[in-house]
Amino acid sequence: MSYRISELEMLDSGHLACAGCCEILALRYVLKVLGRNAMMVVPACCATVVDGVWPYTSVNIPFFHTAFETAAAAAAGIRAALDHQGKQDTKVLAWAGDGGTFDIGIQALSSTAERNEDILYICYDNEAYMNTGIQRSSATPWGSWTSTTPVDRPKGEPKKNIIEIMAAHRIPYCATACVAYPEDLTNKVKKAISIKGFKFMHLISPCPPGWKIPSELSIEMARIAVQSRVFPLYEVENGESYKITVMPEKVVPVRDYLSPQGRFAHLKPADIKKIQKRVDAEWEKLLHKVEFSARYTSKGRKKTPRKATRNQIKKR
User: Fold this and answer.
1) Structural domains of the chain, ranges and CATH numbers in brackets
2) What is the pLDDT of residue 14?
């Protein structure tokens, strides 16, 4: 599925995002797809600040600020109120950071997904609590510096796999996305809002201050995250059908992703080798899931030979 990105602008200039902020650019793309007949819920995060100081906002749809842990629950409540008013066509977006999704908001997120509420939840993931001082979250990668994991005690645990957690809820649609691939991002948003039920998207969002990169490198870092397979772009339907939506044109070493980021400057060659090995293993797991879902229907009926499927994936 491909289409021209809309020229509609639902995000005004004058927002308060940092230079090079990927979150605000991603929001611009998402709002282009949602259009005017939508409402947006944002918990405590960068997005609740950068949209503008009350009573002003740069976002041109109703914008609801809510508590840190309640983005999904508040969005579900708005959905129920709209349905009661007969406004089923109005889209409801929950837009939250990794802290409010992976950590503080996961209870409301899980229960809202389990009830299959008809909302779109997008987590823009800058891999730490950036708005409050770059503290570690469960989305922070292994080995990363943050203000609570200094270089002599960097993050010692792997990043939580939020897409697999959401896929395990058997929701109709979940996907990863990247601002450096705007057509893939907007295609996925368009597909998500066409589906009834709970939809979840995990969006990688490089943060220049938190990642310790120059602001002009943020989009390039997002692109290399995909090309190095650190952040593969794929979608999962009904918890069982996996599809890679962007195959890396040229696979680059993980060190090319890590080395420009000051938060990884303390890593030794052995650490980078360990991360590369983990990335390779996760990519192979993803390929196996894609192969399996291509070979079998939900009834377990065989569709295509495994070898043929893998060859097709490699040729993309």
Assistant:
1) 22-266 (3.40.50.970)
2) 84
